[in-house]
Amino acid sequence: MFIPKRGSLVPLFCALLLLTGCWDSVEVEERAFIYGATVDLSDQQTEQNQQLILTDQVVVPSGIGTSTTEGGQEQAYRNISITGENINHMNTQLSKKANRTLFAQHLEVLIFSEEVTKQPEVFENSLDVFTRGQEMRRGMKVAVANGKASALLDIKPEHIKLPSQYIETLLENQRSSEVAKPLRLDDLHKYLFLDFSFVIPYLSISDDKNIEHNGVAVFNGNERVVVGRLDGELTKGRNFLTGEAEFGTMMIPVDDSKSDSKSVVQFTEVNSDLQLVNNDKNNLQFEIKMDVAGNITETSSKTNPFENLDTYSKALEKSIKQLTERTIEQAQNELQTDIFKLNVYLRGNHYKLWQSIKDDWDTGENYFSKSDIDVKVNGTVEHSGNTIYSTDKEQN
Amino acid sequence: MNLNNRYRYETIEERDILIAVPSLVIAIGILYMPRSLADTTIGLDAIYPLLFGGGITVLFIWLVGRIASRFPEQSFLTYASKLTTKPIAIAISFLFALHGILITSFELRGIAEISHLYLFEQTPIEIIGLTFLLVVVYAVSGSRAAIFRLNALFLPIIMVAVLFLLLFSFGFTRYDNSIPIFQTDLQGYWMATHRSILSVSGFGVFGYLLFYISLVRSPKQAPKKAVFGMIWVVVLHLMIVVITVLVFGNITTENLTFPVIELARTIEVPGGFFNRFASLFFIIWTMAIFNTCAMAFDVAVLALQSIFKNIDKKKIVFVLSPIIFFLTGLPKNQDELGMVGRVIGYFGLGLVASVTILFLLLYKIRGVK
Amino acid sequence: MNKRSKFKSENSKASSPQQDDSFTIEIGTNLDKNLTSLKTMLGEPTDLIIREITIGPNQEKIAMIYMSGMTDNQLVHNNILKTVLSSQPQADADLLDYFYQEIIAIADITKTNSLDDVSYAILSGDTAIYVDGTNTVLLMGTAGGEDRAVEEPQSERLIRGPRAGFIENIGTNLSLIRQDIKDPNLRFKTHEIGRRSKQKLVVSYIEGIIHPDLVDEINRRLASIDTDYAVSSGEVEQWIQDSFLSPFPQLVDTERPDRAVEALLKGKVVILVDGTPFVLITPVTLTETFHSLEDDNQRWIVGTSLRFLRYLSAFIAIFLPSLYIAIVSYHPEMLPAKLVFSIAAAREGVPFPAFVEALMMAITFEILHEAGVRLPKIIGATIGIVGGLVIGESAVSAGIVSPIMVIITALTAIASFTAPHYSMAISLRLLRFTFMIAAAFLGLYGIILVYIMVNIHIVNLKSVGIPYSVPFAPVIGKDWKDMIIRAPLMMLMKRPAYLNTKDDTAAKKRRQSK
Questions:
Q1: Residue C106 gets which letter from DSSP?
Q2: What is the least distance, in Å, from the CA of B119 to any CA of chain A?
Q3: Containing domain of residue B111, as a range?
Q4: Residues of A in contact with B248 (CB under 8 A)
Q5: pLDDT digits (tens, 9 = 90+) for C327-381
Q6: Cβ–Cβ of B266/A138 closer than 8 Å?
Q7: Would residue B332 count as lying in a domain?
Q8: Which residue of A135, B48, C385, C477 is surrounded by the most CB atoms within 10 Å?
């Protein structure tokens, strides 16, 4: 019979395993899962450095409840805050307050208060811990809050027990065109490397049960701070220009004679195409062509939509053009920041030109503000909805 | 058990070579390869030097296959002695054994380092390395054909893992990341070519075929199989680089320690039971690293076995293991480890290239059979 | 009956077991003396029946001898005793020849001169007739006795398949095989095992299909068996397997003749042992241990799906508890947040770490299983109630284990039972513990190390010289369509390539002319 000698290895291996023990073993119920985190500015300031407040929302699993253990009235979370200069250091300090091992692998949302993002370096430095840490996931969503960010974690949403989970799903909901796409941490990371300007979803508390999107905060990649924000309407304009508006509606005036007759168009398709027309860096000319298609969902106009889709299309084109031009105006003059991803386009398609202007793109010389952005809209209203007449025949 | 040879299941077959090449080459290197390629290139430009470097490696493996397949069922030492002289052959065998030992300890340290980074925090790095080494020793003390069978068992799993990774990260790719094209300067291409040869050849381990192909019973098709295996590796590198750069963009890729693991960390399978793929991916990658380790160790054993004919295989294994474990602890940090990797890689590449060319010339001049 | 082998008597005068092989006691012509020597040899057992009859005009003495309970009584009474008693031999006739040729209505009848043969025959259930004055003995094949009927096998049930199973009698078993294969090349090579039990062991194969080396190897290994008594084929299996350190079965057992026949036709060896309904099939590979005949009986899509279901179950049976331990204690980040929270909530209040919890439940299950197997069927049902209700339900409400652990234990247990071979199922359940320990110490990393070790073991393991990991490694692509999936029948024209059969065509497409 065949007797392998290497059998002697097996007990050796077992002995070794027994000797090793389990250093990293932490039972799941012993961990404190951080689901959301916020960073605020502290009132106390030292001379050199800004003091920050880090608030972690830690999940209390039994509060969420399972079938056997009724969640009931128990709160499903607790918020732990700490003040300090350095996020990671603060995180370690937080462990002193938590009775369990803090565990950030399920951290989904990261919210900065507007003040933090306006402090040069503070925002970037506090982001570093979230991109460097091995336990941070790259898909976490970043947002900016109006006012105190930690207040968002104290909201009592009606259906969801975890405020941060509510915020997460809120950020993901793209059914409105006034909402910017959620900003993933790895995209943010990339933009920071490339010195690109970008927008961050902007949240504000509407009442003690609800949070709402309130446009976007605009981050200037060259100046490394948030320079301002766009309101919902202008965010929509920006989303048209970048082609990011996927869902949503727009109110358009139909008859110019009667100013009160409005009609609502729901988009089915929004495409935009960006072209650089000339190469002179002091007078860059961009052309943005947009194709917008939509259906009428509501109208108070007397114009028969079934027969006059063209009229509606014209009206749609006109209102989009107005909106986008207002947005461009705002971006070039007030914010002086490229929020239309022109930077991405230039780097990708005109690399040499980009290399020569990138340091003065939306700062200093500010080639962005000097450039000329021409918008062409091609609007189509495809369908008048299920009913044909907007008003009763008898009234005519 | 005298039945073994009659069924011919104890010899290495041609088709084993096809599987052995990717199993040998794919290991730690590929996990950070996108970083080192993106480092000197812009946009997706890394694929051109990768193709070029891959082409050179494929050519080399064909030469290796050609020379080794001329001497079927002979050990490396035997045919090397015929081509050169016995002392030179012994010296070359020693160098290969050294390379095998170095590669084993490098991979061992690599896996300990990465699992320390992604899986464990407290567990001592020595324990991670030691447990892995013991498993490798267990494999090497078995039969050589069994190691090739292990390749055949693990490679499909590894491929499926890679395919899953690529498939799921497809949704995270951005067109923006693929542009600009052709903006890299020549210096950048040159550096990237270097690095891609280093990675595609797996730090020179593809040269181990000099030992293995000659063991094949009838190795007529072996060079072709080796070439196919290598093309497979190049395609795999290509896919990984393309997807990684498309997902992260060139700049981020360049700044990630292990871009491929980061890629696995990025994707989240919606609605899945495991929505985080990274730990699972890394665990499966352990098998790839294990295959490389086992074969590198085996080559070291094989080379020494042919020199010291009287010493039992197991004795060689048990003498080498502590040496390997000792070497594992030498690099002080990640940076040094990377440097050691490059040194081993260039040593291996130089060794394989010079031995292959030397042998081919001698074969043409002397015409030994 | 088949050719009888020599009987090495333990009870003859010389009591040493190391007897000369050619030892025989010549039978004399004196009936009384012969009977005495026979009785002495067998030790005058109470169940030995000697019926002395006087017959014919010459009042010749004859004796009929058999062991009660081992013969077919009908046969002995009607075909031998009655006909002998009612016979009227001629005065000058040779009584022995007369019986042999005219009287006894039994086909299997032989003459012998050796006491050795006689005693062996009687002990096997044959009937012997001694005639005074001659030294030749008639032996009649009357073996029978109490045999179980051929009925549906208990251990392997099929929905669609023959309802026949092997029984304890090797003769019946051979005939069950013979009924299915009428090929003249079907070979039954008889061995005798058991120094004292003298069991018959038959190696069965089809010459012309099987690789001859395989038969030689099996015969060589069987010859090495040296034991008093092989309790069943399981003991034979352990004598001839390749590695005794392996948790995996290298020969599989079956109770089903159709399964044995299928194996024979594939080019394998079937070993039948007297006294057990379980026959052994070898060589076998890892994937084949997950095959059931059901796969072949169903259409190929169903068959293939069932096979994959079984692979999945095997995976669950081995890995699920260890994955649970690894995830709960080391890597909760692998799971979606909601799942983690509900696991954490469920484990809230459980006083043990996941490993202890899992180990406790796994061992409890094994105890329940073992108890259930041993108990009679009627009491067995209570085990289910006790196990399921009392232990599962109460343990959860007492807060000793989490409900998720109960789900995992139950799923693991059920999954392990899908393995068509019990010996494989039990190996899987054993391996599960190794993985659990590894997971407790090093999490996923531990699991993968043990997984690699198990794989190293498998690739080094052989079943009668055939690598256990075929057709994955070495890769034999041709065999994938029958061994991993179950391809449509018209694609399965060849016998498995890994067996190196001499005749590799199992079926052919026949064109029908219109």
A1: -
A2: 9
A3: 30-366
A4: 186, 190
A5: 988 888 888 888 888 888 888 888 888 888 899 889 988 888 888 878 777 777 7
A6: yes
A7: yes
A8: B48
